[in-house]
What we know:
Helix content: 25-40%
Strand content: 25-35%
Amino acid sequence: MTASPDHPVIRARGLGKRFGKLAAVEALDLSVYRGEVYGFLGPNGSGKSTTLRMLCGLLRPSDGEVEVLGHRLPREAERLKRQLGYMTQSFSLYEDLTVGENLAFLAAVHELPREPAPRRIGELLDRYWLADRRHQLAGTLSGGQRQRLALAAAVLHAPDLLLLDEPTSAVDPQSRREFWESLFELADGGTTILVSTHYMDEAERCTRLAILDEGRLVADDSPRELMASLPGRPLLVESDRPRLAQRLLEDQPGVIALAQIGASLRLLASDEAGLEQRLTERLRQGGIDARLVPGTANLEDVFVAATRQPRQATREAP
């Protein structure tokens, strides 16, 4: 389900947030449309969490303007709450209440009608495999169970927009896969989802992806288009001494990034003419007989290329 391009669910222009002299988010332009699973990818400290908190009305922007579901923030943040679900990084429900008691409490907070509320809670307990945990204290749940409970709590009031801040950072791979299947089920039903992550495999699942670095938006498109428009090219260095090859190439002009993958060395290179020949010669001079072959672009290459500028310890606002 998609909305007209003229009416994004989230629209931010020149959005910025400063904490004293530190500019956490700078000049962010963002448009997210109905039914999208829109991803935020970025290093720690890149501004993902700060941006999410501004988008849900928890933080007042220092600069710019933002409209979410037709509500101007922060002025209309209170109205937005009824249409918004928000899931934080850390488990934020009451550990000394049972699963069912947590959901019943939130149903009252959201002012769900008394009769439909138990039915809605039962539906969510079944959908997220928690029916047999209804009477278990939330504090005794496993990581994956807590995650599913937090998601049930975030969608209890059937929000139009769901904001998720690194929701899978503390769960196992199987739980992550199940969680993402749940997100796509919500998106198929028309819920718009904005999710921050630091996992490349999760970022690839998003319908559209923003890469943030030092508070700025440095890339924004579908994962497929981002990989297709990758500046530079991936190369594989076939050698029986990948560690030595990495040391020989890491400071060479035209080499953007290097990473050992198993017994091979993966290299992200610029489009400089004759680069392969020069790098091969550098390896030969170092005593390595190696072959450079073209690789296939992946999202990690895009991430490295987009964030390759040296990071600063602090960012002072102008």
